[in-house]
């Protein structure tokens, strides 16, 4: 881990030095030679660091060397950032300030430059000294042997899990039955069966029970189990397969096996397996090339052979194997099974293995921490089996991270869970560690995380794709490797929200602190001394005192602070190198004047705070990439916003608390007249359409998201020209100034081809004729359109439309879903005052999973054809007629048979007291 942080620090610094030399020559002046020297030496060190990053165990000398490189890289970065901060502060001033620096303050400026040059010379000498110790980085034989033993221990543990007694397993019956069926079915085509899931789920244990079962053994002529090391040799794998196959049939192993070369091994395997029905288990696969390496040695002669593999990486499980394949995603244990397994281990000496009542709260907390991982449950249960007193259990609960680091009985579990982390490229390791700054069980939004990574410089530059797209690929990789758990996906399976497994987070936190990557500040672990480069303040119930040791701080994140001072009156001077200031949801009333001196700031999140205004001189934050003031009390943006030339995401809408019957949805903020000068802006959401604004934003063709409110009828032509020019636009929100005004968009010949979601709020005279061109659209929300024309024929053919919301959008009496809607999964029908009949033809909306009918009081009967919606899981009625509900209430009701296939049916209504009540009609 130390090598990871050091390598990342060196890599980040090299990019920064290169940028400084190339683009800031006027600033660095005579420092170029010193920076060039540092750059050359760090480059030579980086390759050694990358090699060290692949080592799971470092000697003390190696660890010291790596730590020194990390520290020196961070020291160079601090000095360089301090210097550019000073020089940028000079440039940011007006003419008077620059004149002042050139005359009165010139000696001070020269002194700063001289002091920085001296520091760089000292650092150069340090680097030379560190570089000379590189020979100590060589690994002696004993250290190599230690690494081999560690690898062998892991392999031995994986092998031993194959022999766990059946009665000690819980919650695997259904999984086992499914796998046995796949292995022994009548298909004669060779099939690859992949078992995927995060480390510790028991993939090996489950597959071994299936592999050793009598029905499977009797089905195949021969069988082989191969545990794959992370650094495998193909020839060794083939030799082990030959040994296993011959042992399974009690045949003699070829005497010349150890001298066979690759082609001879392939030939021996193919000749032996020809005409045999075989099964091979490839356990713990880490490489996507393994199948290509060995497939040639496994013949496919139509005898019904099977290959099973276990992996933590969904990418590997989803490979195109060139033959029939199946994937089984192993899930964590259900709560009941997890509790049973824990009690089996922790209370094995108690009557009926029951938990004593006085220990139940602590025991259930520990089981909850395990998150359904059998490995963790068994390990923790074993540790707790020797603890009798409540105080001992409470101590482990309160300091689980300490136990994980120091209890020998838990170190193996920790190593297993961290294998996936060690296999990550170092850039992804740092991105994963950044996620640990969020509180336990915190749901992390995809876009927020991406913007934070970008601000911290964790996203590498790539040609032809945006930083946002690079960060998206990082997220995809982390989820596919089961390092992040997906909490919510969009209509087409793209992850939107994530969280960390509690235990994996606890383990990673120790590395977060030991490598000075980040630190947490909360009631249990409050510390005035920081020393880390990232600080996460979490759930403080007492006054936060002045923090010390924050001169190198780059990120400050505040989460759910209960009784912190209601305003940040002053930032410590050491914060001036800050890149990230995330105050989302904190009870902050006022920002300090020092904010505009954070010249390195790239991310400022004030969402949900009580801040009422931004500083007029916010334009001094020339590196700012993200400004989020959503749902704050800010009512106007200062003119200085237009000076933020690196700004990419400007988020400023206020969502109005509303009922279904209200027109208001979003309220934007007025923007300065020169906002169109923000050439790097990707997201503008939402802005008020003041006089001539829409005409001005016609040049912002780079936008991917546009939200614009208070549009007037006279804006139609300018609005349509602006939208037509935005060929990269993915998301569009347009609302008219009030519910009685028309939203006119007929001047738009066709929508941008990339448009994925669209919300239109306001009266429409007719359905825009360009609706059928929305071929990429996944979400359409028509709000208060009050169309007399049926919109369905215009959108039924949209191939990707997954969510449709019609809120007071149609004044007709009938909605007829006659054709299409092949991708529609969610349908909202809200506040349609004259709707009396819904007709759904057979085969239409075949994938619909959720149907919500709200405030359609004239609808007295169920949608005709609802019985054909086989995928429908959720049906919800809110404030509808009693006649409609009565038709499905109770087993003997008129239309009960039409909805009996729907698992969840809810009815929301108001009681006589005015409170909303929920009735379950399932």
Automatic annotation (TrEMBL):
UniProt similarity note: Belongs to the disease resistance NB-LRR family.
Gene Ontology MF terms in the entry: ATP binding
Biological process (GO), any one: defense response to virus
Span of domain Disease resistance N-terminal: 11-95
Span of domain Disease resistance R13L4/SHOC-2-like LRR: 552-883
Pfam families: LRR_14 (PF23598), NB-ARC (PF00931), Rx_N (PF18052), WHD_DRP (PF23559)
Keywords, ordered alphabetically: ATP-binding, Leucine-rich repeat, Nucleotide-binding, Plant defense, Repeat
Residue ranges annotated for the Disease resistance protein winged helix domain, each copy included: 437-508
Residues in NB-ARC domain copies: 173-350
The species this protein was found in: Ilex paraguariensis
Protein name: Disease resistance protein RPM1-like
């Amino acid at each position: 881990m130390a090598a990871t942080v050091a390598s990342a620090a060196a890599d980040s610094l090299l990019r920064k030095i290169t940028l400084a030399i190339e683009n800031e020559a006027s600033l660095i002046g005579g420092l170029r030679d010193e920076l060039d020297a540092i750059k050359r030496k760090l480059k030579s060190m980086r390759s050694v660091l990358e090699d060290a990053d692949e080592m799971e165990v470092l000697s003390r000398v190696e660890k010291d060397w790596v730590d020194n490189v990390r520290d020196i890289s961070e020291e160079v970065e601090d000095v360089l950032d301090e210097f550019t901060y000073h020089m940028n502060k000079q440039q940011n001033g007006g003419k008077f300030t620059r004149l002042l620096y050139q005359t009165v303050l010139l000696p001070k400026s020269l002194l700063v430059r001289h002091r920085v040059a001296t520091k760089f010379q000292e650092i150069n000498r340090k680097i030379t000294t560190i570089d000379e110790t590189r020979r100590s980085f060589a690994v002696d034989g004993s250290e190599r042997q230690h690494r081999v033993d560690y690898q062998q221990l892991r392999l031995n543990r994986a092998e031993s899990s194959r022999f766990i007694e059946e009665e000690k397993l819980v919650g695997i019956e259904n999984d086992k039955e499914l796998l046995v069926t796949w292995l022994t079915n009548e298909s004669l085509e060779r099939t690859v069966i992949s078992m995927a899931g995060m480390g510790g789920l028991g993939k090996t244990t489950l597959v071994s029970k299936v592999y050793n079962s009598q029905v499977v053994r009797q089905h195949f002529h021969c069988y082989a189990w191969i545990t794959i090391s992370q650094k495998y040799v193909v020839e060794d794998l083939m030799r082990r397969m030959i040994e296993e196959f011959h042992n399974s049939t009690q045949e003699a192993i070829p005497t010349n096996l150890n001298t066979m070369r690759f082609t001879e091994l392939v030939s021996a395997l193919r000749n032996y397996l020809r005409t045999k029905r075989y099964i091979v288990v490839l356990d713990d696969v880490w490489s996507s090339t393994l199948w290509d390496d060995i497939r040639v040695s496994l013949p496919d002669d139509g005898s019904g052979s099977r290959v099973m593999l276990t992996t933590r990486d969904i990418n590997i499980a989803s490979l195109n194997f060139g033959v029939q394949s199946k994937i089984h995603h192993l899930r964590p244990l259900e709560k009941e099974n997890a509790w049973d397994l824990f009690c089996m281990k922790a209370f094995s000496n108690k009557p009926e293995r029951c938990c004593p009542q006085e220990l139940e709260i602590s025991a259930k907390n520990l089981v909850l921490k395990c998150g359904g991982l059998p490995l963790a449950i068994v390990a923790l249960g074993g540790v707790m089996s020797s603890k009798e007193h409540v105080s001992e259990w409470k101590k482990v609960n309160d300091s689980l991270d300490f136990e994980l680091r120091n209890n020998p009985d838990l170190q193996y579990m920790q190593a297993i869970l961290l294998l996936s982390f060690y296999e990550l490229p170092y850039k992804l390791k740092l991105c994963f560690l950044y996620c640990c700054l969020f509180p336990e069980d915190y749901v992390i939004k995809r876009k927020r995380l991406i913007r934070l990574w970008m601000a911290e410089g964790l996203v590498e530059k790539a040609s032809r794709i945006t930083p946002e797209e690079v960060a998206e690929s990082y997220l995809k990789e982390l989820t596919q490797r089961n390092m992040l758990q997906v909490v919510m996906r969009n209509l087409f399976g793209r992850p939107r929200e994530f969280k960390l497994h509690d235990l994996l987070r606890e383990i990673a936190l120790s590395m977060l602190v030991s490598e000075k990557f980040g630190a947490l500040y909360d009631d249990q672990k409050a510390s005035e001394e920081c020393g880390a480069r990232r600080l996460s303040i979490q759930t403080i119930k007492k006054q936060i005192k002045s923090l010390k040791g924050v001169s190198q701080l780059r990120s400050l994140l505040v989460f759910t602070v209960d009784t912190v001072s209601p305003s940040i009156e002053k930032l410590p001077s050491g914060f001036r190198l800050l890149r990230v200031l995330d105050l989302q949801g904190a009870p902050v009333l006022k920002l300090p004047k020092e904010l505009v001196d954070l010249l390195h700031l790239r991310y400022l999140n004030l969402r949900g705070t009580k801040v009422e205004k931004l500083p007029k001189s916010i334009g001094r934050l020339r590196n700012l990439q993200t400004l989020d003031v959503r749902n704050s009390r800010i009512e106007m943006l200062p003119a200085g916003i237009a000076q933020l030339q690196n700004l990419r995401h400007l988020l400023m809408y206020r969502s109005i608390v509303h009922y279904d019957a209200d027109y208001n949805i979003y309220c934007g903020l007025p923007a300065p007249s020169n906002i169109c000068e923000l050439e790097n802006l990707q997201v503008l959401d939402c802005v008020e359409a003041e006089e001539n604004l829409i005409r001005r934003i016609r040049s912002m063709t780079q936008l991917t998201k546009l939200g614009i409110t208070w549009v007037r009828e006279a804006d139609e032509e300018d609005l349509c020209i602006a939208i037509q020019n935005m060929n990269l636009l993915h998301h569009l929100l347009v609302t008219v100034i009030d519910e009685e005004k028309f939203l006119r968009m007929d001047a738009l010949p066709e929508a941008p081809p990339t448009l994925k979601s669209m919300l239109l709020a306001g009266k429409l005279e007719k359905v825009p004729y360009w609706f059928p061109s929305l071929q990429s659209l996944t979400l359409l929300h028509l709000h208060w359109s009050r169309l007399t024309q049926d919109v369905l024929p215009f959108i039924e053919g949209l191939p990707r439309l997954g969510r449709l919301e019609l809120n007071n959008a149609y004044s007709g009496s009938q909605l007829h879903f006659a054709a299409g809607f092949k991708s529609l999964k969610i349908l909202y029908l809200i506040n349609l005052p004259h709707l009396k009949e819904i007709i759904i033809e057979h085969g239409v909306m075949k994938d619909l999973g959720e149907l919500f009918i709200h405030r359609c009081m004239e609808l007295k009967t169920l949608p005709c054809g609802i019985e054909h919606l086989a995928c429908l899981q959720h049906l919800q009625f809110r404030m509808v007629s009693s006649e409609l509900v009565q038709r499905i209430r109770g087993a003997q009701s008129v239309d009960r048979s039409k909805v009996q296939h729907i698992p969840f049916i809810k009815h929301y209504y108001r009681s006589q007291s005015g409170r909303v009540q929920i009735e379950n009609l399932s």
